[in-house]
Amino acid sequence: xxxxYALKALDYNKYNLSAQALLVSCYRRIGNSDQxxxxxxQLLNIDPLNHYARFEKYLLDSxxxxxxxxxxSITNEFPQESYVEIAATYLDAGLEKEAVKVLETAPRNxxxxxxxxxxxxxxxxxxxISLLQEADRMSPAxxxxxxxxxxxVLQWAADNIQSWKPRYYLGLLYWSNQRKDKTExxxxxxxxxxxxxxFYIARAVLHFQDSVxxxxxxEDLNRAVQYEPLGWRNWHYLNLFYLNNKDYIHAVQVxxxxxxxxxxxxxxxxxxxxxxxxMGNYKECIAVLNKTLILPQESAREAHDLxxxxxxxxxMEQIKNKNFNPALKYIHxxxxxxxxxxxxxxxDPDSRLQNYLALYCNxxxxxxxxxxxxxxxxxxxxxxxxxxxxxxxxxYVGILMLKKEGKEAAGTLLMDGWIKQLDSLQRWRISxxxxxxxxxxITADFYNKSSDEKDNLEKQCYLNDADFKMRIFLTARKMIxxx
Length: 483
Description:
The chain has helices at residues 2-12, 17-29, 33-46, 51-61, 64-72, 79-92, 96-104, 110-119, 125-137, 150-160, 165-176, 180-190, 197-206, 214-227, 232-244, 248-261, 266-279, 282-290, 302-320, 324-334, 352-364, 368-384, 392-404, 408-422, 424-427, 437-446, 451-463, 468-481. Helix 11 packs antiparallel against helix 12 (180-190). The radius of gyration is 31 Å and the shape is elongated. The protein is 71% helix and 0% strand. The protein has 483 residues and is mainly alpha-helical. The longest helix is centred in the middle third of the chain and has 19 residues, at 302-320.
């Protein structure tokens, strides 16, 4: 019957690999070796990397050379996963003996041993327990269970051996299936028994956003560093914890210790630069970024963004002290896109916030020509790119400049159009843009809403350490407008 249905499936789609594979197994099981071998060759012609077909050829031949051909064809980074995948395919078809055999040929690994122990629990109880113990002796490094079928395997293992490892693996598996409640329960059962740093990192990350469990999260992160002091990720997550909790003094201290162990690690350097930025050590932050090398990659904007706001923040410090020429140097530096920070310069970057600050500096220095130039630059960019897909403060700078130049009607038209475009109902697309504190403050300021509402929104903007640009803009707006 299975052959009949598989052939019907191939009538519909001759490239149905699952049907081809099942035909090979069916013909072998009924003793038709020639047909099985023929189907295996057909499958390999369609899919030359089909390991299932090569294992079927080994079952038909059972020679050392046939087994060697099967094994040497598996050359990926996690070869054990290919063996488990074949075994899972056999189990789905009810072919348990074949599943056991493929796992017995696999390189020894934790999940393979758990699978074998589970499959032999009734056939050979002593060997099953021995396999469980063997799995427990193996390192948990790079063990990432991902198959739904493995839940029953790992649950059985956890019930039959007193060890944290199957509970840890099962917790990871539930986590990948969005069952964080089960993950939390299983990780809790592990207690502090594991001597494995990634376990403590995983448990800490699971509770990262839980303000009630800050103490236990910090304890887990410190344990990770203790167990693996030369693992850069452990230091990175410890620094991230302090940054998330706005404990910038400890973030800087941890970063300085980490940088000694990993002087060229870009992730550690970025974390250090971020901690310095939040502490207000702008010049030191810039110095760290100037010595950081990040390879170009998709969406690698963080390092450049830090470089930009660090320079702008130092420029604001200089402006407060009426050092306008040094301020201009930092403003111009913030407009650069250093190649070593991993991000290429856009075709037409938006520098209106920088120009807003530069305009004020040039006016204070009585440099009319330079002031006129940056003013025109803001108005020209706004006319050519509206609304620009950049920070809301940049767009608002454009509107403010139109208003200052007596073009209030044009500014109002742009503002109304911008708000309408961001409205979810207008575009039939869910968007949180209008509910963000920066945009709400901008609309409250432009449409002259109550000062209490503006003050409350302003506080929200200042509390968000991740949005330095808005904080810089708000400070500059007060300074320039005098209110």
